[in-house]
Design brief:
GO terms for molecular function: nickel cation binding. UreD, UreF and UreG form a complex that acts as a GTP-hydrolysis-dependent molecular chaperone, activating the urease apoprotein by helping to assemble the nickel containing metallocenter of UreC. The UreE protein probably delivers the nickel. Keywords: Chaperone, Cytoplasm, Nickel insertion. The protein has about 240 residues and is mainly α. The protein has a single domain, classed as Urease accessory protein UreF (Orthogonal Bundle). The chain has ten helices and no strands. Helix 1 runs parallel beside helix 8. The longest helix is centred in the N-terminal third of the chain and has 33 residues. The chain is globular, with a radius of gyration of 17 Å. It starts with 10 loop residues before the first helix and ends in a 10-residue tail after the last helix.
């Protein structure tokens, strides 16, 4: 697999990463706000700047230190066929989701990604054993995304850029649906996130397994509040 950052990424691999980052990917990401809806309700996220700052914190505190760091390891594990590490990484995701709805989200999206991979690659005899292994875990979304990305020739950094931008698009759309923000404000928020994503990806790649963490107590509190929120649009 190509790992040189300076080498051009083959068109097929670039398009595959764009596909994986697309909100149209049928894994249900559009139906989750990952605590944002609760933060708007309970933490006074009432302005464009407040939403942007909150999402930037989430990018650096939960994504870069947690899921993105894990995906960086999982891509390599899938490419090496190291199913012991794949299992360990999947267990880590399950055990570090701090609320019921966050765990249900990663499990539902993981199953949907496994189904998508099965449908897309049903004639690929080399890949299908890995897809069957993923489905039997049961899968979490970061580990499932890593398998999908591992089939490309993309270096890990490019994989993380695609993953993080897909997450950012979903979060901005959740904000637009949850409060009075216009499309231009949404694009400005997305621009701030896009500027921060490369550094977040580099930080994630540099973390050792012992440095990976999932510690975001305010997000956990907001997610728990969301589970009983009276009126809501999203599943998390």
């Amino acid at each position: 697999m190509r790992t040189d950052r300076t080498a051009p990424l083959p068109a097929a691999s670039l398009l595959q990463l764009m596909w994986l980052a697309s909100p149209a990917l049928p894994v249900g990401g559009f139906s989750y706000s990952e605590g944002l809806e609760s933060a708007i309700e309970n933490a006074n996220l009432s302005t464009e700047a407040a939403v942007a700052n909150w999402l930037l914190d989430q990018l650096h505190i939960t994504q870069s230190r947690g899921d993105m760091a894990l995906i960086a390891k999982a891509v390599g594990a899938w490419r090496r066929g190291d199913m012991t590490q794949v299992q360990a990484l999947n267990d880590w995701v399950q055990h570090t989701r701090e609320t019921s709805e966050l765990r249900l989200q990663t499990e539902q999206m993981g199953r949907s990604m496994a189904d998508w991979l099965r449908n897309q690659h049903q004639d690929d005899e080399a890949l299908m054993p890995a897809v069957r292994h993923l489905a039997a875990l049961p899968p979490t979304y970061p580990v499932a995304f890593a398998l999908a990305a591992s089939t490309t020739q993309a270096p890990v950094r490019a994989v993380l850029l695609a993953y993080a931008f897909g997450w950012a698009e979903n979060m901005v759309q959740a904000a637009l649906k949850s409060m009075q923000l216009g499309q231009s404000a949404g694009q400005r928020i997305l621009a701030r996130l896009a500027d921060a994503i490369p550094d977040a990806a580099d930080h994630a790649i540099g973390l050792m397994d012992s440095e990976r963490q999932a510690f975001s107590p305010m997000l956990a509190i907001l997610s728990a509040q969301h589970e009983t929120q009276y009126s809501r649009l999203f599943r998390s």
